[in-house]
Amino acid sequence: MSLAAVPTRKLTREELEAYERDGVVMVKGLVDKNWLNMIEQGVEQALDKSSIFGKVTSRKTPGYNMDIYLWKRIDVLRDLVYYSPFAHWAQQLMDSKEVRFFYDQMFVKEPGVDAPTPWHQDLAFWPMKGNQICSFWIPLDPVNRESSGLQYVKGSHKWPQRFRPDSPDHAAIGLGVDAELAPDIHSHPDKYDVVDWEMEPGDVLMFHPLTLHGSSGNKTRKQKRRALALRWVGDDVTHSPDSSPIPIPYKYKNVDGTQFAGPLFPRILPSHIESERAVRSKGVESQINAKFMKSGLKNLYSATKLKLTGFDEKSVKQTW
Ligand SMILES: O=C(O)CCC(=O)C(=O)O
């Protein structure tokens, strides 16, 4: 029996078709207040006490806060992962029998913080292959283009190109240098079909990991912009470390070419696996800082190597 709460409503055929066609769909008023309250509590706790990873990735711009694997140390988010209805929506979107949780990621931009999220495809950051992968982006504050709402290039999940990973701190820009840089989307309004939405807490963005997306800095004077992303994987996803700039600062035993498994990527549907759940139920899991440092050094090494070839990260022109 599934322990993930049954959703108050399923995604409609139109919503599923929009996801398939555009690589992104915004679903209005989907998340009940009690789940939103849990997300808010979790994000506030993460802001009060960030991990080493969060501190390092957010260091360049005060007022920009990013952090990952919150659910490993914040109980209310662990419970959200295991018992909320999100896995059911992921199951529908991915059309997958199994749903495993990949990881959670917080993005907070205080008013006036100039930290655009460069155009990118998420899959460039992740050590996996497959199509049954999706992310939910859940805002805790009203968002619009001005306050750094996410923007997407419609249909880009079907493009053949794979772009070089980039993030607000540009830490990963030296990796995947064989891939092209993402185009400067806004300087070609006739060429790219950009879509974005005004959102309220309770609304959710659901998107494919190859859909090109990004956001401006928070240009408002008063509106903070807090959001949590939840990422899911399904049946056809296998481990492949070719490109993995994100550090995975926990132990896991995945073997290349096999499905994700184990307590770091717990199965939520069709049912929990007791031995996986027990690991996190015992208590908070600390990050393995050595793993994080190793991946940070790899990023630094490739960024330095790239600079020695005369590359300047400021030359990555993106208009926001
Ligand atoms: O919140 C943002 O600005 C970035 C979010 C994002 O890129 C993602 O969730 O994949």
Structural descriptors:
single chain; 320 residues; alpha+beta; Jelly Rolls; 13 strands; 24% helix; binds 2-oxoglutaric acid
CATH topology: Jelly Rolls
- Structural class based on helices, strands and sheet pairing: alpha+beta
Instruction: Return the CATH architecture.
Output: Sandwich
- Uncertain regions spanning at least 5 consecutive residues: none
Radius of gyration over all CA atoms, rounded: 18 Å
Order of helices and strands: HEHHEHHEEEEEEEEEEEHH
Strand content: 15-25%
What integer is the average pLDDT? 92
CATH classification, class level: Mainly Beta
What molecules are bound to this protein?
2-oxoglutaric acid
CA-to-CA gap between the ends? 47 Å
Number of domains: 1
Can you describe what's shown?
- This protein is α+β, with helices and mostly antiparallel strands and 320 residues long.
- It has one domain (13-316): q2cbj1_9rhob like domain (Jelly Rolls, Sandwich), CATH 2.60.120.
- Helices cover 24% and strands 19% of the residues.
- It contains seven helices and 13 strands.
- It has helices spanning 13-22, 33-48, 52-57, 75-83, 86-94, 274-281, 289-308, and strands at residues 24-27, 64-68, 99-109, 117-120, 128-129, 133-139, 151-153, 194-196, 204-207, 213-215, 225-233, 238-239, 267-269.
- The strands form three sheets. Strands 1, 2, 3, 6, 9, 11 and 13 form a seven-stranded antiparallel β-sheet that branches. It has a four-stranded antiparallel β-sheet with strand order 4-10-7-8, with no helix packed on it. A two-stranded antiparallel ribbon has the order 5-12.
- Bound molecules: 2-oxoglutaric acid (AKG).
- The site of 2-oxoglutaric acid (AKG) has 10 residues, from β6, β10 and β11.
- The site of 2-oxoglutaric acid has 10 residues, from β6, β10 and β11.
